[in-house]
């Protein structure tokens, strides 16, 4: 920001003579350095209009829907009198931008274009910038995909868009032999940011993309050899030569040319045929900035009786055709007809070599070969460098309004606009009454390393991948430590303990998928929660996760993986993202816990012969033999089964309520009506010691499989 002059702190001038002026509610209304003479605000705290009093920046107006989402941005000339462009946003039900339309007036003609369509995985991963004029669009039976119009973004843990690249592969010829050795990715933008979001000079770069459009095949080279070729190399002027081809010459492995009567006029020729193959070469050059495609060829040919009988034709060592040579002692030549190349010859640059291999026949020393009217068909095309429209998203994955204060200097969050140069918002925090210790204009509570600004409202901690990875390997070494600290996830903890113990690699792969894409597939179970649960507040998730974990309140790294996997499993049990409720009857808490458990044992863990035994009535409990039950569980465990017990939490020292624990074995009859056994429970291995009477009261049954 340029020097704004001396600061006047007097009460009468503080809001008049200084660069910034504010209204009675603390909202910015003037910015002299940016030629903003007035900002008009809506009653809900959103910017309605930005007016100018000079400079080259534009007047701006904004429209919003009932939920406060931006749905239109209007750009006027510097005087605010002429509308230059309107951008309309199409949103999904959650307020995510799906596509944009631009209304522009160009040379007194109105255009209404579908400008951009966002590409989504579990969240936005890029956009397609393939403009379509909807006023003149028509339905076509053919679909044309232009490479280089799809843009994908690489982001870091804060959501900052660091690199934008396209679906275009750029061929590379590293050794200049006219053969593609590898491909380079089509990067269009790289960016780095200061902690508060300023795009850093020298580290924020925009690149152009080479784009080639196919041409229409025509004659690009033709030679009739009517000037009686004799010199070697032969450099006679072609009859037809594309304007983007130069340096034409003919050579052969005999180092000598002659000429004979051709089909019309003269023909280029060799006057001896020997047993080894003779090679003829046409050398030409594609002008810089152009590429060559060859689609077909043709020529007249004839050999004498002791000459060659066959040919092969190559372009840059790629075989494009072969055939027989007309053998005759007469004067007539035979035409090949137009022969389509047998292998694609496309995108050639620099030096081009067309090679004939002549072979076959008796090859007497007096044998001759002649060729007339050689033609190559194809096209040359200019390599244009296309500079795509600026990528709309940048710091913390938010839309950037470059029209307001220049490139990257105004970041639009849902509730407020942010100026990264000063690290503050235009307006007062809508949640200011809840954060009395903060400045009402502060950005992300001035914490910009391990979290993000939540849509202009508050700081939101972002769990780092290193923490997740560390906690996963802690679980690998001690799977019993998987812990449920909130209601409703004991079943998930029991399943996850078994999962980690049986197949840590599968667990690790799923966690990688959840962290970086928000979803994973394990056997027949789709883990696809309705939000990235590792960085949003649980209460913001559609299924009221506030009773589980709040990652902001984790005191150690140990629970990071627990939070992600248990909440994600809970939130993914059914396609409609709803898990079994806790009502009475068939859909009771107990019944639903059992259904969830069996479902995940089969579909997530891949266990077979999943079986259960429950004691649903008081009568069945009265008839239960606890020692026999535990003895049977011990046998099942010994046979390789994984077992989850359904109990009242009082059996393991908890409060009154349904609870699931994993049976770990080690059953012992202690005598005097007492028994003991081991379970995985609340993040540790626990030895349960109880009497038979309490076991009957608190044990409901078990589910197992292997």
Account of the protein in words:
- The chain is mostly beta strands and 706 residues long.
- Helices cover 13% and strands 39% of the residues.
- The protein is built from 9 helices and 44 strands.
- The strands form 9 sheets. Strands 3, 4, 5, 6, 7, 8, 9, 10, 11, 12, 13, 14 and 15 form a 13-stranded antiparallel β-sheet that branches. Strands 17, 18, 20, 21, 23, 26, 27 and 29 form an 8-stranded antiparallel β-sheet that branches.
- A hairpin with a 6-residue loop joins strand 4 and strand 5.
- Helix 2 (465-477) packs antiparallel against helix 4 and helix 3 crosses helix 4.
- The longest helix is centred in the last third of the chain and has 15 residues, at 589-603.
- It is flat and about 120 Å long.
Features:
single chain; 706 residues; 13-stranded antiparallel β-sheet; 13% helix; flat
Count the E strands. Answer: 44
| Beta-strand percentage range | 35-45%
The parts where pLDDT drops under 50 for at least 5 residues are 532-560, 574-591
Specify the helix fraction band: 10-25%
User: C-alpha Rg, in Å?
Assistant: 38 Å
What does the largest sheet look like?
Answer: 13 strands, antiparallel
Assembly type of the chains comes to single chain
C-alpha termini separation: 67 Å
Shape verdict: flat
Mean pLDDT: 85
Structural class category:
mainly beta
Instruction: Please report the number of helical segments.
Output: 9
């Amino acid at each position: 920001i340029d020097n704004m002059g001396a600061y006047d702190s007097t009460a009468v001038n503080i809001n008049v003579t200084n660069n910034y002026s504010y209204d009675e509610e603390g909202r910015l209304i003037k910015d002299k350095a940016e030629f903003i003479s007035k900002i008009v605000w809506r009653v809900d705290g959103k910017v309605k209009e930005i007016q100018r009093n000079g400079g080259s920046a534009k007047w701006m107006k904004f429209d919003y829907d009932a939920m406060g989402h931006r749905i239109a941005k209007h750009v006027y000339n510097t005087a605010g009198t002429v509308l230059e462009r309107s951008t309309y946003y199409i949103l999904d039900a959650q307020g995510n931008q799906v596509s944009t339309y631009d209304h522009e007036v160009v040379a007194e003609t109105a255009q209404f274009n579908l400008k951009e369509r966002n590409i989504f995985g579990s969240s936005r991963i890029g956009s397609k910038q393939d403009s379509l004029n909807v006023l003149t669009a028509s339905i076509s039976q053919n679909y044309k995909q232009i490479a280089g119009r799809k843009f994908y973004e690489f982001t870091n843990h804060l959501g900052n868009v660091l690199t934008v690249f396209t679906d275009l592969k750029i061929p590379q010829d590293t050794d200049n032999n006219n053969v593609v050795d590898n491909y380079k990715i089509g990067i269009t933008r790289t960016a780095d940011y200061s902690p508060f979001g300023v795009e850093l000079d020298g580290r924020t770069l925009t690149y152009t993309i080479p784009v080639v459009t196919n041409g229409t095949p025509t004659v690009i080279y033709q030679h009739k050899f009517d000037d009686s070729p004799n010199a070697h190399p032969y450099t006679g002027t072609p009859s037809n030569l594309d304007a983007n081809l130069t340096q034409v010459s003919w050579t052969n492995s005999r180092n000598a040319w002659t000429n004979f009567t051709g089909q019309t006029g003269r023909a280029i020729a060799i006057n001896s045929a020997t047993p080894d193959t003779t090679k003829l070469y046409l050398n030409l050059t594609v002008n810089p900035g152009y590429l060559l495609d060859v689609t077909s060829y043709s020529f007249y040919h004839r050999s004498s009786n002791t000459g060659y009988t066959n040919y092969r034709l190559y372009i840059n060592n790629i075989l494009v055709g072969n055939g027989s040579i007309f053998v005759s002692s007469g004067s007539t030549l035979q035409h090949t007809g137009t022969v389509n190349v047998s292998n694609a010859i496309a995108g050639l640059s620099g030096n081009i070599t067309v090679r004939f291999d002549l072979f076959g026949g008796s090859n007497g020393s007096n044998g001759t070969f002649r060729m007339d009217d050689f033609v190559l068909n194809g096209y040359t095309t200019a390599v244009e460098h296309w500079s795509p429209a600026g990528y709309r998203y940048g710091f913390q994955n938010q839309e950037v309004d470059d029209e307001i204060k220049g490139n990257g200097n105004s970041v639009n969050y849902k509730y407020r606009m942010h100026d990264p140069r000063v690290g503050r918002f235009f307006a007062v925090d809508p949640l200011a009454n809840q954060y009395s210790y903060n400045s009402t204009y502060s950005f992300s509570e001035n914490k910009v390393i391990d979290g993000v600004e939540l849509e202009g409202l508050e700081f939101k901690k972002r769990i780092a991948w290193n923490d997740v990875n560390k906690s996963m390997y802690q679980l690998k070494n001690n799977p019993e430590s998987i812990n449920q600290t909130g209601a409703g996830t004991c079943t998930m903890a029991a399943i996850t303990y078994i999962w980690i113990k049986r197949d840590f690699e599968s667990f690790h792969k799923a966690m990688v998928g959840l962290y970086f894409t928000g979803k994973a597939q394990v056997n027949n179970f789709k883990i696809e929660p309705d939000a990235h649960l590792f960085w949003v507040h649980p209460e913001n998730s559609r299924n009221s996760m506030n009773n589980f974990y709040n990652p902001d309140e984790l005191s150690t790294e140990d629970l990071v993986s627990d939070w992600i996997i248990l909440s994600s499993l809970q939130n993914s049990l059914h396609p409609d993202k709803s898990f079994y409720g806790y009502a009475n009857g068939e859909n009771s808490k107990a019944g639903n816990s059992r259904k969830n458990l069996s479902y995940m044992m089969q579909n997530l863990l891949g266990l077979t012969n999943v079986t259960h035994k429950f004691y649903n009535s008081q009568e069945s409990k009265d008839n239960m033999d606890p020692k026999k039950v535990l003895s049977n569980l011990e046998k099942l465990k010994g046979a390789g089964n994984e077992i989850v017990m359904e109990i009242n939490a009082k059996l393991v020292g908890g409060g009154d309520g349904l609870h699931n624990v994993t049976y770990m074995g080690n059953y012992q009859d202690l005598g005097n009506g007492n028994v003991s056994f081991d379970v995985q429970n609340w993040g540790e291995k626990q030895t349960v010691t109880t009497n038979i009477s309490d076991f009957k009261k608190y044990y409901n049954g078990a589910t197992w499989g292997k």
